[in-house]
Design a protein that fits this description.
Blueprint: H1 2-15, E1 18-21, H2 26-39, E2 43-49, H3 55-68, E3 71-76, H4 92-110, E4 115-117, H5 131-137, H6 143-146, H7 151-160, H8 186-201, E5 207-212, E6 215-220, H9 225-230, H10 232-242, E7 246-249
Helix pairs in contact: 1-2, 4-5, 8-10
């Protein structure tokens, strides 16, 4: 495993200077830490502040960069104003990523940084990820994916590096909670954010609250189904308070990309 880390370091060293798209998640934290260890002041972390990312993620990003002594730039983006985003088509992630990474490329240019890098990994190739098309079109580098790092690899190496994120739950932007074709609004984003924060505060390890009109479909790990039932009255009461009319539990449980299950994937 140490050889894999050295391979990544060599890859980053050859880039000479990078802007790291930093969300404070497992992958981007590992990538940023490794890049900074190698390139020092030739690394800038850029975090997007927007309505589709909870404030807790931005706070964690700020704290990590301050602790590690990494230059950190926060770029404010209103995804709801990006043409086509609110209509939530199946290629929503492409529309969004193209705008966000264009902004990061501007930051790189202003600061004389050669490359923008992002933290997708090999496991991301197994799901419908239109955002990766935008990454490739814009020439953004994906070191972890290019070198074949899996999520498990990243968690194990993060633990070796002493990063607390090695056991952090996976996260994706709040827009991914909306069924395709349902209009994304600031009000509904807040409903989802508050609902997920409630479940996290109740001690659930990995959660998603998917929104289908006025219905909340809760995904938790199967081993926590009992806990969901134990807290049923509290959860129902609070989610109704947040604006949901109906609260349901997904019997399959948590999994990434569940909103993609109804899509007809294009043939290769």
């Amino acid at each position: 495993m140490k050889d894999r880390l050295e391979e990544l370091k060599d890859f980053l060293k050859n880039l000479e200077s990078v802007v790291v798209a930093f969300s404070s998640g497992v992958d981007s934290t590992f990538l940023l830490k490794t890049a900074h260890d190698v390139l020092k002041d030739n690394v800038i972390a850029v975090t997007v502040k927007s309505c589709v990312f909870p404030n807790r993620e931005l706070t964690e990003a700020k704290e990590f960069c301050q602790k590690e002594g990494i230059k950190h730039i926060i770029v404010e983006v209103d995804e709801l104003k990006i043409e086509g985003f609110c209509q939530n088509p199946p290629n929503r992630c492409y529309i969004c990523k193209k705008e966000l990474f264009t902004r990061l490329l501007d930051v790189a240019k202003i600061n004389n940084i050669k490359y923008v890098v992002e933290g997708s990994n090999l496991d991301d190739n197994g799901d419908y990820r239109p955002g990766l098309k935008a990454v490739e079109e814009l020439g953004v580098k994906s070191p972890l994916r290019e070198l074949g790092f899996t999520k498990s690899d990243i968690r194990n190496l993060s633990k070796d590096l002493g990063l607390s994120t090695y056991e952090k739950p996976s996260f994706a932007c709040l827009a991914s909670r909306f069924v395709y074709g349902e209009t994304i609004t600031e009000e509904k984003l807040k409903m989802v954010d508050r609902a997920e924060q409630l479940l996290l505060d109740l001690g659930f390890k990995q959660v998603r609250v998917r929104i289908h009109s006025n219905i909340a479909r809760i995904e938790v790990l199967p081993e926590e189904f009992g806990k969901l039932m134990d807290n049923r009255e509290t959860i129902v009461h609070k989610l109704k308070e947040f604006g949901f009319a109906y609260i349901t539990m997904d019997l399959i449980g948590y999994r990434t990309g569940s909103m993609n299950e109804t899509l007809q994937m294009p043939k290769e």
